[in-house]
Structure formats: C-alpha cells, structure tokens
Amino acid sequence: MRASTAATVLIGLLAATPAFAVDWAKVPGKDVTLMYPGQSSYEWVLTPSEHSGGFKIREGKNCHECHTGEEDTMGNLLVSGKKNEPAPIAGKPGFVKASVKFAHDDKNMYVHLDFAPGTQPDAKMDAANETKVTMIINDGGVAESNRFGCWAACHDDAATMPSAAGAERTKYLLKTHAKVGRQGGGDELKPADELAKLKAAGYELEYWQARLNPGAKAVAVAGTIFDKREELKTSAVTADATFAGGAWSVTLTRPLVAGAPYKDLVAGKTYTIGFAIHAGHTARRFHYVSFERTLVLDQGAGDFVATKQ
Questions:
Q1: Which of 12, 208, 270, 284 is 20 to 30 A from 298 (CA-CA)?
Q2: What is the pLDDT of residues 62-113, one digit of tens each?
Q3: Which is it for the CA torsion 189, 161, 277, 146, positive or negative?
Q4: In angstroms, rounded to a whole number, what is the distance separating the alpha carbons of residues 258 and 142?
Q5: Cut 0.85: pTM above it
Q6: Exposed e or buried b per residue across 205-224, where buried means at least 16 C-beta atoms within 10 angstroms of its C-beta
C-alpha cells in the first residue's frame, strides 16, 4: 500500500472514531429484569380491590420494595393472558434481562444496555422497528414517578388500555388533567396557566430511545411526557448499537447539560429512571418494563452510580 493511501485510510478511521469512547468492560453494571406488564395501569396499581398491594402503595411503599426479584414470575403470568391481558401474543417471552451500566465524562452521560430479547414472535405492530430501547428520566419533579417509575405515565385510558374506548391517547401525567378517576384523566386538561406552573416546577419526564433493526444503524430519538408523550424535533440523544449472537449492545449518549426541555444531569442530585424494551415489532403497551431505579453521578446512594471516565 502506498504511503499516501495508508495515510488516507488512517485519517478516515480516525474521523469515524468517537472523540471519547467508554471502556465498558471496566464499568461495573447491574442486572435489571424487565417484565411484560399487560394492562396493569397506574390506576390499577392504586386500587386495593384489584391489586393486593394497593394498600401497601397507599401506605407509602414503592413498586420495587415489594416486587423486585419477582419480575420473571409476574411477567410470565401476565403474558400468558391469565391476568390483565385480553390480547396475549402467542409465544412471547414474559421477561427480558438486561445488564445496565452508566458513565460520564466532562460533557456527556452514557448509558449502556446488553440484552438478549429471546425468541420473539412478530407482532406486526411496528413494521419500521424490530426493537426499541427506552429510558425515562425524572429529576424529582414528578413525585409519582419517584415512587412508581414508568407507571406514573401509564394510565387506564391510554391507547389499548382497558378504559381507552378506542382513543389514541399516549402516555401522560395526571396532574395535567382536569378530571382524574379510576379510568384515568380523559381529554380535558387544566387551564394553560396551571399547566405552565406545573412545567416551571419541573413536573415533566424526559425519555431517550434507540430504534433498532439488525444490520441497520441505530436511530436515536428523545422526547418529553407531560400532558402527552411528545417526540422532540431535534434530538440531543445519540445511539450506537450492535446485534450479534441474538443479543443487542446499545449505548445512548446525551450532553449533561442540553438546554430546555432536557433535564440537567448534575452531581449531588438523585434521578429516578425506568427502562422499557419493545421487541418483536411491538408498539405501545406491548413492551417490557422495569421497576423504578435511582441514578446519581460520581457518589451517593443510588441503584446506579455514573462514575467519571
């Protein structure tokens, strides 16, 4: 190979290499089991006559305090159609296990997930994406998310849920709605000035998502959940993914400070996070979800500690 050609190849390789790359082999991780939830809504969770843990929830318990370690058993029951699932997908696994790691540098936060979705039937709900990986972040401004993670945005009248009646409602936060009941919040929102106050107080969730297809480049999106789930036109989140041996390896990256409506990620603060995985071309509630976890930067009491690299 000529020297000029070798130099050109080297320059090309350097240009394609990220300026910073985490050595994930040196970052400690934790296993998280994501379960199939069926039609188990936020309202169902709070109803003692339907959910035996409803009394404990009302006494101040959180989901993970009672159910961490039971995700596989619960997921298998729900996916079977024997409870809270009127439209089971034949042959679908009840849970997915993921290894999750966090790290950061001076500019960015990185979250890395390794998981094998198992043998997934094609649900034919989302033809464009075989798999989607999502993380929801709460910086403390949404009290119900601090306790229930993703369930804070999963309501009984959202699309394909028991009280939807054919409506196409997305995820939303209850305090944005004028009327709240066992069937959810309906379509009537609070006045604009009250909604503005809620947002100003930090009552909003943020999500990062990687859309995945084997052999194709990962597509990253980001968005917010307030009175509805809303994808942002320009994503501050990037995604990298590989698929080999039936397993995905996914990294989501976002600047620590990305400007509104993104939440600043800073040391000294505790964040509540939750994970979701859509597999087998599923959409909406036909996913796997984790119970709530906590995240801190550098040091502190959290399920995950993102250390500086």
A1: 208
A2: 777 778 899 999 999 999 999 999 999 999 999 999 999 999 999 999 999 9
A3: positive
A4: 20
A5: yes
A6: bbbbbbbbeeeeebbbbbbb
